[in-house]
Every structure is written in C-alpha cells, then in structure tokens.
Design brief:
By secondary structure, the chain is an alpha/beta fold. It has 20 helices and 18 strands. Strands 3-4-2-1-5-6 form a 6-stranded mixed beta sheet. Strands 7-10-11-12-9-8 form a 6-stranded mixed beta sheet, with no helix packed on it.
C-alpha cells in the first residue's frame, strides 16, 4: 500500500496510540506495510502487543486503545483463533515429529518435558531412539534462535522444502510459575506439566490452551484441576473407531453373481480369472488387491488379483476348495480361516496381517503355514518368531541364558501351538525337538532387529497389537529378498499404557498396506479354541 494512500484518520489514530505507549514512529514505509492488512485497526493492536510484550499485562493501556478506536472489548479475542498446544513427553515419544502436526497453531514444550526426554535418551531401550529424534527435531527448529525468541516462539519450519507454518514453537520455563498459581503439588512431573497448562490458560484468556497427552489418567487429572481443554494425540490416528477397520474381505448377503450383469472369464496359469467392471460394485465399497469376496451361497469365494481404472480382476478360489485345504495336517474350520490359509500359502504375498479375537487360530495357522513352507515346500530357510516383551518391546530383563532362552517365556503361545500340531504323534516331545531343528525355528527379540537384513525367512511377529508404528516399521523394513512376514494380533488385548486400538501399529499397517499388492489382511471372525474361550470373549 503506497504511503500517499494512508488517510488522515489512520495517521491520527497511529499518533494517538504512539502517545499512549510513549513511542514515536516516523517511518511512513513501516506504517504503510502495517496498514496494508484488511483490518487495519486490529493490525495496530497486533503491532503493540507483539512488538512490546510488556503491554500484554497492561489492562489499562489495552482498554484505553480499545476505547480510542471504538472497538468492542471482545474483538481481539474473536480475531485471535490461534490455539496453544502444550505437549506431554509421551506425545513426543509416540511421534517424535509431532511438533509439525499442529499447522498454524502454536506449540509449547514445558521445560520438564525436555528434562524427561534427556533422562530417557541414554537408556538402552527402543524408546530412547524416539527421545533422541524428538530432541533433534526441537533443536533443528530452535537452533539459531535467541533465548528471548525461544521464550516468545520460533516459526516452525517443516519438511525438506523448508516450508514455514504460521505456528510457533516455544519452550516454557515451568520452574518460574508463581507459587500462588500452582494448583497441584510440584513433586510430580505430570503435575508440573498440568500446572504449566493451567498457568498458560490463566495468562492467555484470549486463546484456547490445550494439553495434549496420551496418558488417560493425566487427562483426567488435568480436567479435575480446572483445565478446560485436554486431548489425546490423534494426528496419526487413521480410523475413528476400530469397528471401521478393514477386515480384508467383503461379505455379500446375497448371491454375488446375481447382481453382476457383465463379466468376462478366462483361464490363465491354471486359474480362473473374472474381469468385472468396477461399475458392478457398490460405489461405497473400497476395493483393493488381495481383498477376498464371499457371499451367502455355498460356492463363491474369490480374491481380487488387481484393479485398473475400469475393471477388477478376480481369482476364483471356490469355497469348497478353500475349505478343503490341508496345511501341516490341519484344515480350516471356517471360511475366514480358509482365506487366511490361502494367503499364508500364496508365494506372491509378502506380508499377511491376521487380526481377530483370542482363540481364532492366528498363531496356529501361521505356524502350520511356516512349517509347511519350510519343510515340505522348501520356500524358506528358517522360521523366525518374535514378539514384543511386556515393557512395550523394551528390555528382555535379567532372565538367565541366551537371547533365545530368554525369549521362550514370552513365546510360550508359539510352543503351545507346536504341541497342538503334534499332539497325535507317537512321541510329541521328540517330534517337536525334531521339527524345531528341521525347520530351523529361531526365537528372537524385537530389541535386536534394528540394523538386520532378514533373508529367505518365514517371519512371525506375534502379539504385535502392543507395538507402536515406529517399532512395527522397524520390523517390516528388516525384511529382505525371499522373506515373508506374518503380523498377528488382537486389538482387544492391548497392554501398553499409551496405545489404544486406533493408535496401535497393527491398526496402522492394516490401513496403510491396503494399496500394496504384496500384502493381504484377514480378520478371523470366530473363536475355535473352545466353547469356554468363546463364551468368555463374548460375555466378559
């Protein structure tokens, strides 16, 4: 806006404000830049309150300016839509790059959070890596900022393109909160962070102050202490409800072929392939490769081989053939187990995700498929079994023996499965020992997966509902040529304090790997372990 366009009223108002603040501004170019905003009178307030922080607490001066400009007292609050997000330590451990997720809003890190990150970063635990990444991320943003700028907020630059969001990142000195404003005892780090959020809420009455934590109990404490806005970190949450999670198959309540008007069928490599126009499917149905289709009839069962712009190509499997599969002496007890078995034995599928309630046969099917693939078909050189330990895949503790011996108590479910598979043998114990040697079954800890490259192996990652996205990514990226990964878990049995069914790494890969043609996901809908287990799952 050129200087000559600044009208007399604007200049008089500027002089009035300068006199109220005992400041003189003679640079008309600066004035032109400031008044180029749409709401010029709000721009004046922005200049005063951003450039001269001492006036933030000067209610008399603020009121005088509002009266002089005939602005209603609530105007400033209505205009300031920026939120203040106070992050707890567990948010940065869960997602080390979380500071980039709040767009135009401001992010505040209490000093106590930095102290907790510092204590965690040197531990010999997987979470220490996340702590170090979080610290490096904060350092990257605040590296060249002055102490004053860090307190007031530094613009957040995100990504390799160095894009600058409108939001700012600041470190809050929570040890300087006046004693009269402390509501919870300061001896606990959670209380200090809650007190920080309460102090910011008291200071910034014109902004929404939100404490973000994955600790449920901390959220309850914060609300009980008077904090208006408390939230879980949901940026990485890809589904709102676990019931919306893909099951890996579509069940049609009618005969599938009765609703299809156009189809072309051909024989290819011993398989029957149906080419069905996408217009024949319900537009609300999400289709993806290796998704199974079943209906109410006793005959139809197919798997989507591929999808192009106009057609879906279905491999006709046939329900009867699916149910009469035999892998290491066992056959599927229902169609869901049949679909899982077919995916497990398909050499073109690199990763199979098995979800479902306890007792539905996830581990049994995976181990049977592994033994069949290694011993009978020689597709792999070994079976590698791993799972998280109770401390969210951290330490395997001080149990005696080697890594494999230490892992045996946590992998009892797998050894139980081997016993079930060989219970009818003349000497089950000798059979198990022979099979474990013949199939080269190895028990490994998740701790020691980083940096490895696992080749020509059938890998079972059991109980992976307790793994974070970062941990499960570590396992998947270890898979080399000729390896197959089986991820199994029950989202109703999460032991982690900071994970839920919608933020679990298992949920994440179910959704993220849908477009990948080398993966299949099957929800095993049925408890086959016993009628007692079935009743307990439904009623307890």
């Amino acid at each position: 806006m050129p200087c000559e366009n600044i009208n007399k009223k604007t200049l008089l108002t500027w002089e009035l404000i300068c006199s109220l603040n005992n400041k003189q501004f003679h640079n008309r170019d600066t004035i032109s830049l400031i008044f180029s905003r749409k709401n010029w009178f709000f721009s004046i307030l922005s200049v005063i309150f951003n450039v001269y922080p001492p006036h933030l607490g000067d209610v008399q001066t603020f009121t005088s300016i509002l009266v002089a400009l005939h602005i209603p007292g609530g105007f400033y609050m209505e205009q300031n839509k920026t939120k203040l997000f106070v992050l707890d330590t567990n948010v940065l451990l869960h997602e080390p790059l979380a500071v980039y997720s709040f767009k135009e809003h401001d992010v505040i890190i209490p000093m106590t959070v930095l102290e907790e990150l510092d204590q965690i970063k040197d531990r010999k635990r997987d979470v220490s890596r996340d702590a170090r990444i979080a610290i490096k991320t904060l350092e990257k943003i605040l590296d060249h900022a002055s102490p004053e700028a860090i307190l007031n907020g530094v613009p957040i630059k995100s990504g390799e393109k160095n894009h600058i969001h409108q939001g700012r990142l600041s470190i809050y000195p929570d040890h300087l909160i006046p004693a009269e404003h402390v509501l919870l005892p300061q001896g606990n780090n959670d209380n200090i962070i809650i007190n920080t959020a309460l102090e910011l809420q008291r200071k910034h009455t014109n902004k929404k102050v939100i404490l973000v934590t994955k600790d449920i109990n901390m959220r309850l404490k914060a609300k009980g202490a008077g904090l208006t806005h408390v939230e879980d970190y949901r940026t990485d949450q890809i589904v709102d409800d676990v019931s919306l999670l893909s099951k890996g198959f579509i069940h049609y309540p009618h005969d599938f072929w009765e609703s299809v008007k156009s189809v072309q069928t051909q024989q290819k490599h011993g398989q029957t392939i149906h080419r069905v126009p996408l217009s024949e499917f319900n537009q609300r149905e999400e289709l993806f490769a290796n998704q199974y289709l079943i209906d109410a009839s006793n005959d139809f069962c197919a798997r989507i081989q591929s999808i192009d712009n106009d057609f879906a190509y279905l491999v006709d499997l046939g329900k009867d053939r699916i149910m009469h599969q035999k892998v290491w002496g066992i056959s599927p007890k229902d169609i869901h187990q049949g679909m899982a078995m077919q995916a497990l034995m398909d050499p073109d599928i690199d990763m199979v995700i098995l979800t479902g309630p306890a007792g539905c046969g996830k581990t049994l099917l995976a181990m049977a498929a592994g033994l069949e693939s290694v011993i009978e078909k020689n597709l792999f050189e070994r079976i590698l079994v791993t799972r998280n330990t109770p401390e969210i895949a951290e330490s395997i503790g001080f149990l005696p023996g080697s890594e494999e011996e230490k892992m045996l108590p946590w992998l009892a479910g797998v050894t139980d499965t081997l016993e079930v598979l060989h219970k009818h043998d003349e000497n089950p114990r000798c059979s198990m020992n022979y099979i474990m040697e013949k199939a080269n079954i190895q028990f490994k800890s998740v701790n020691f997966m980083r940096g490895r490259s696992i080749q020509n192996s059938f890998v079972l990652l059991d109980e992976c509902q307790n793994l974070t996205v970062s941990q499960i990514k570590t396992i998947i990226t270890r898979m080399g040529e000729g390896s197959k990964l089986i991820c199994s878990g029950n989202l109703a049995q999460i032991d982690s304090n900071y994970l839920t069914s919608v933020t679990s790494g298992l949920t994440y890969i179910v959704e993220r790997f849908k477009p990948f043609e080398g993966s299949a996901n099957i929800y095993l809908n049925g408890i086959q372990r016993s009628r007692l287990a079935s009743f307990a799952e439904e009623e307890l």
